[in-house]
Amino acid sequence: MLSDLVDGGAGSRRHARALYWMGWRITHIADYLGVPRTTLHEWAKAEKWAEAKPLERVEGTLEARLCALINKDGKTGGDFKEIDLLGRQIERMARVHHYEKTGKESDLNPEIRKRNDGPKKRPERNHFTEDQVEKLKAAFLDELFDYQLTWWQNILQRTRAILKSRQIGATFYFAREALIDALETGRNQIFLSASKAQAHVFKQYIRSFAHQVCDVELAGDPIVLSNGAELHFLGTSARTAQSYHGNLYFDEFFWTHNFTELNKVASGMSMHKKWRKTYFSTPSSIQHQAYEFWSGERINRKRSKADRIEIDITHDRLARGFTGEDKIWRQIVTILDAEAGGCDLFDLDELRFEYSDEEFDNLLMCGFVDESFSSFPLAELLRCHVDSWEAWTDWKPHTQRPLAWKPVWVGYDPSHTGDAAGLVVLAPPEQPGGKFRVLERMQFKGADFEAQAEAIKKVTLRYNVANIVIDTTGLGEGVFQIVKQFFPAVRGLRYTADAKSRLVLKAQSVIRAGRLQFDAGDVDLQRSFMAIKREVTGSGRGVTYAAGRSNDAGHADLAWACMNALDIEPLEVTATGGAVRSILEIN
């Protein structure tokens, strides 16, 4: 027993104090140690046993036990081991006292001091621990809708081709899928889009996911993970990038220029059997080069008539996904499929009201556009494609003044009967007959005309706006009046059959002359132009242009906004010369 190991006097006092801190009463301690109660009370009062802090009590207990072991005769090996242990605990208590004075964690842990005093080791770049990878995958799987889960279940398919509705989270999903695959397998991932700006949407999703779930900041272009996997984000410049290899994700492949050539390079990146290819897009036109790939006709071109294959690409056959005779796994996901799969992000009644039947079918039900009556065929629009991040060296979209002090023109088309309003920022030619560049396009849904006028005002603060043209039909008049207060030179344009004909003819002339450029990823702008068709007026005596509804010029809002801005240049200007009218001439 401990009482047998301590000597009298100081030893008895330490023993009594230890028992007191263990919860013994003074009376019981007196009986146990044979010390008068009055003496114990005097000790307790003098040393303030009851007021001792937890750390003091631990130190007192350590002291009593250590003194008992030191005074013991005939120590065993276990006694010496315990003395060594208790000595180290005394050292630790000393560090705690020092920490209370300095607040430095290195005073508690000598290893921290050694680490701080030694050479600094940089943290591993783009690194995930095994636990973080599991956490990332769990977060990924927890948020999947049913149709996205189908994509995940078919991740091992050699080639996947998906025709999809707008805004159902395909780019969002495939960005995360690719990151998970790269972390688990170390395989490279290649994201190919019509432009680098569009490809970098993948990058934004990936970086956001890693930061949100694991607080890991991914950096670099390409992003190179610590396990060696590379994530490349490519635009049309990939036509000459023969050295890349990895899993391929080809976004909006139905809206790329010269798909056949680009796909040869793209498929070459994933030629080895260990790589996978994933194509996904909203539909454009059956005249697009990608339609042969989608329909399977590409395979039939090298087959005899007897060996031709027929692939069923109807929605009924592909709604759940199906691997065709050409070994491509295809699926069609309409907005109704997405809703049935758990996606509750849409109000279908509102969308049916907002879009014409043709637009609803193309944008949301995966129907291809019949461009036989379109005033702007897709083939002509594809020639307007540029990779804006690479082609426009004076264009800095993420700065406070993206085009510095160079002038721009702004076109605005108001909303009509529930549809969206559109705004386009256009860089005019620097030389007569030169090229127009669509720098920005914006759409406003549900915003009142005051909010839309405020959006135009913000544009004037970012750009050196030289001209603004606003369609004053309907709600446009309200926007026009507000804009006139801060930009008196704004021009109002009232749509008539003659005015719309002039706008379309001017745009057709500019496009045919190769004078209009926009980022290849601006799918919504291309779709907007394609929607404009020539129609007979209500009287049956003339021709007008509309998009889906004969009396509704508000649809195809981005195209009309762009044409409003183009109208500042006279119709007769060609690629070989001409002069831009002044505001006085316009008015």
UniProtKB/TrEMBL annotation:
<dbReference type="Pfam" id="PF03237">
    <property type="entry name" value="Terminase_6N"/>
</dbReference>
<dbReference type="Pfam" id="PF06056">
    <property type="entry name" value="Terminase_5"/>
</dbReference>
<dbReference type="InterPro" id="IPR027417">
    <property type="entry name" value="P-loop_NTPase"/>
</dbReference>
<feature type="region of interest" description="Disordered">
    <location>
        <begin position="102"/>
        <end position="128"/>
    </location>
</feature>
<dbReference type="InterPro" id="IPR010332">
    <property type="entry name" value="ATPase_terminase-su_N"/>
</dbReference>
<dbReference type="Pfam" id="PF17289">
    <property type="entry name" value="Terminase_6C"/>
</dbReference>
<keyword id="KW-1188">Viral release from host cell</keyword>
<feature type="domain" description="Terminase ATPase subunit N-terminal">
    <location>
        <begin position="13"/>
        <end position="67"/>
    </location>
</feature>
<protein>
    <submittedName>
        <fullName>Terminase</fullName>
    </submittedName>
</protein>
<feature type="domain" description="Terminase large subunit gp17-like C-terminal">
    <location>
        <begin position="410"/>
        <end position="566"/>
    </location>
</feature>
<dbReference type="InterPro" id="IPR035421">
    <property type="entry name" value="Terminase_6C"/>
</dbReference>
